[in-house]
Please model this.
Amino acid sequence: MTAALEARGLVKRFGGFVATDGVSLSVAPGARHALIGPNGAGKTTLVNLLTGFLAPTAGSVWLGGADVTRSAQHRRVKRGLARTFQINRLFADMSVLESVTMAVCERQGSAAHWWKSIGAHAQAVDAAAELLARLHLLDVAHAKTKDLAYGKQRLIEIALALATEPTVLLLDEPAAGVPTGESRELFETLLQLPRSVTIVLIEHDMDLVFRFAERISVMVSGAVLTEGTPAEIAADARVREVYLGQASHGATAGRRAAASPAAPPPGAAADGSVGLHE
Amino acid sequence: MTANVAGPLREAARWKKAEFAFWLLPVAAYFVFPSDLALLSQIAITALFALSLDLILGYAGIVSLGHAAFFGTGAYAAGLLARAGYGDPLLGLAAAAGVAGALGFVTSLLVLRGADLTRLMVTLGVGLVLFEAANKLTAFTGGLDGLQGIEIKPLLGTFAFDMFGRTAYVYSVAVLFAVFWLARRIVHSPFGISLQGIRLNAARMPALGTPVNARLMAVYTLAAAIAGVAGGLLTQTTQFVSIDVLSFPRSAELLLILVLGGTGSLYGALIGAIVFMTAHHLLAGLNPQYWQFWLGLVLIFVVLFARDGLMGALRRLAARWASRFATRRRVA
Amino acid sequence: MLTVLFDGIAAGVLLFLISVGLSVTLGLMNFVNLAHGAFAMLGGYVCVGLLNRLGVPFLATLPIVMLVSAAVGVLLERTLYWRLYGATHLDQVLFSIGLVFVSISTAHFFFGAQQQPLQLPPMLSGQFHLPGGLDVGVYRLFLIVVGLGLAAALQWMVVGTKFGATLRAAVDNPRAARGLGLDVDRVFVATFALGSALAGLGGALGVEMLGLDPEFPVRYIVYFLIVVAVGGSGNIKGSLYASLILGICDVAGKYWLPQAGAFFIYGVMLATLVFRPQGLFGRVAAK
Model:
């Protein structure tokens, strides 16, 4: 069966620094695949390479069996590959409905229409409204993006990606920075996404990862350390040593972070130490 | 359900009462200032020029220090066409739009290659190269002396350009309104919204499937064509082309006008042109150095403290009135 | 032909003195300062004022010029420029254009529209007659010596001193530099002051070669921008090479192809911008 998304020997060098060191990854259609690893492991860089935000130094990217290594970002989106960003990249001054409708117009091919107003494009507005309803954003449809709470903004980030009707969706730390109270909405949304959408999830929140993922890839220093089912990964001593030691530190820290803002965010052991946990 | 949801979006695109009121002004001006029609024509032309810059700057977010290149190209195109015997004004405008638009298309390939700062300098460079070209090709352009001997035939075959400037004024305002109406449709369309998306978050747009460069090239070409039309109008209403239609000071002044009025609203461009040209006219008797000094100070002040220009100030005023009105209604 | 080369190098050196401040400012704080030429103009007018109205000897005016330019630079930076460090390039452009207008009209007001005359001291006038029949202008030689000397001193400062190291770190990656505890803001004020001082010096030294009138900032800003574009922003050595190349090309062009005018220069700039946005010598700096 053709993989929905595949990386073959991806390498990315920035001068002397190797950010991605021969990564090969295969994601089956309909999969729920998580990508974990300590900070600086190169997870976001990999997503950037897969989506075309960055060009690889070597290797190739395959989408639904087609080689898209040379394709521009927007062409990969048209082929069904979408992503969310770790830090929200939203349209601050636009209303929620406006931004999502804009994305839908792009998908429906009406984005270059210049005569009728966007509000008159009923098909696009309908689809956008439906999407917002699914994500429980309909009540803030006309609010300006910049006026909304962070949790809601994170949902808009996902809405924008979903508006492109992807077959493969790359989520870059969707729960990052979202207080525990608001993250449930987020989880529900992700769990309810249909099987027609293949999902690759980068996350530090181990709760989310183990509840959501069916396969997990562990990345360290730009390369894939190992890959397997959640049970296999949890049992893997190497993974525990490299990452899960910090992750449990991170999970507890995550819970503390929701209570007091002064606590470090999840996975914050940037110096790479396997921290002592409480 | 969706009819309600789409409501505010459609509402934004509808013509407001204030807009109708605004467009009565040029009509009124014709009767109130019959001896100043030449100046009023210039205001309309500058407004059109500023409108073209607003499309790329206020909506798409491209900073240009050389927009006069297209203005001047249109001016010379219309002028040279008239000198060659084809003095029909509408034909001249079509030529101006075509040539300037073509130049815009070609330069957009250069402009869009680089990032922010590079883009800025490329627009500056293109403007300068064109100015130098016009300076050297004196046979074509008349060089520093300008292009003369331009004869414009009557508009639509009947309305001759009279010495009171009546035909010129009505012509300029009509063209301004027609282009404005078109631009207004465009900025509320999905295309226009995607331009704002590019301005607000250029990195996100490709991730939504937008061919960013293609969009920007389209709007840059359009803006160049409109600037060309403005230049053509200038030539036709003054029957002369001066080389400073291509100059850097003209580009810089346009930037100032647009910022003064407020970017990203189309009306800001018009208001900025009106205020600037009127002030310039009233203060023209003053020492030109005083004018430039105060202009510089105003610009610094606007950038530091009143960044959204006159439109921003007007919007804040309108909001305050609206809330006072609402409280009064609530109390009553 | 060698005279052309010589004059070109002298012009290049002047360009370097004026442009280096702009290059570092741009590379350091990503600030587009189109008013940079105004500092050069200020230096020129201070020199001429002191020389013609107060009879101060030419060489003695130079340190004063540098001090005044630095002082004005710091004053403007602390009162106005700092407000726009995080602003968009458009805002910075508009602001600096406003500043240019103010400076031009001020110069007009105090000195009038005409070119300022400058009488060089006899020590610096005339020609050296070198063996082999080559005549070099004394002043040109003086410019080259001073300019290259300052360039060398700058390079030493950047490479050999702590301040220089801090500057390089801040240009390379301001956020990381701050994270390391480096006082990037103080570095910037110092750099701004130094850049303004050098620009003022360049303006004063350049009165004889480049002329001095109120339109100076507008007339030459393109040259300064070309130096930055070709040399790479934040790159001192690059600025020097770019200035020299530009100076030689400009003088040679005016000598051999007066028809071409400034075409060649603008063409080079456009070509560089399009094909190598980071300049011929620059690296793409981290953000």
